Amino acid sequence: MRRPPRSAPRNSAAPGSEGQYGVAAQLPAVPVAGAAGPPLRIGALGEHHLAPGRYVYTGSARRHPRARLERHLGLRPRRLRWHVDYLLTHPDCQVVDVCLVAIEECALNARQGGRIAIPGFGASDCQAGCGAHLRYLGAGVAPLAGG
Ligand SMILES: [Zn+2]
Question: What ranges does the record give for the region Disordered, renumbered to this chain (predicted)?
Answer without folding.
Answer: 1-20
